[in-house]
Amino acid sequence: xxxxxxxxxxxxxxxxxxxxxxxxxxxxxxxxxxxxxxxxxxxxxxxxxxxxxxxxxxxxxxxxxxxxxxxxxxxxxxxxxxxxxxxxxxxxxxxxxxxxxxxxxxxxxxxxxxxxxxxxxxxxxxxxxxxxxxxxxxxxxxxxxxxxxxxxxxxxxxxxxxxxxxxxxxxxxxxxxxxxxxxxxxxxxxxxxxxxxxxxxxxxxxxxxxxxxxxxxxxxxxxxxxxxxxxxxxxxx
Length: 237
Ligand code: PXP
Hints:
Elements: E1 3-7, H1 9-18, H2 25-34, E2 39-43, H3 53-62, E3 67-71, H4 75-84, E4 88-91, H5 111-123, E5 127-132, H6 136-144, E6 149-153, H7 155-159, H8 163-183, E7 186-190, H9 198-202, E8 207-212, H10 214-236
Parallel strand pairs: 1-2, 1-8, 2-3, 3-4, 4-5, 5-6, 6-7, 7-8
The protein binds pyridoxine-5'-phosphate.
Pyridoxine-5'-phosphate binds at residues 7, 9, 43, 70, 90, 92, 100-101, 131, 151, 190-193, 211-215.
């Protein structure tokens, strides 16, 4: 069975919409763990658009399963990660104007910097995963650079418009996962997975963990909205 890491960034997105202290991503992390999540993921973006510095320190303390910090390789963020010591760091490319992480890291192009960052994080006992497109050359280089695992970007699969293109993207992920397993690196996957498209990815036996955020947080609104309204009605009556 694939493990499930839950990304709680968008709980913080709702909080930031009002500049309040709630909803609190730390409480969300605790509920996810109570529900059986195998790890908690949060992305400390350079622009701090959702998760902020205080959140990651509180999460570091509160998370009992595994705290997986998503991060860019910018020096400021790497310094924070080395002090914070999350259980895991997932290195992602980051562009300021993007709505979400748009593509995988080009591990071949940025191998020098990635090698340095992986070494520094490893020295702090942080395991490192690289978020990459499902391509053999990227997986091979990740292994060479000393990454503990890779996370295959499932965005193209999730966004594929036709059945044929979806199948084609799925095949790329299956092939990449098999290759990763063969060369001895742990393979995870994530991005854009939801209640309709996660199953075929979860069925790939070489995939160790799925990291899912937006769809779970979105679904939780509808799973809880009736109760929220009923509770308020009781109060105002
Ligand atoms: N994995 C990585 C590396 C990501 O950057 C993201 C998005 O923050 C996710 C998984 C989760 O993606 P989604 O929110 O689309 O489920």
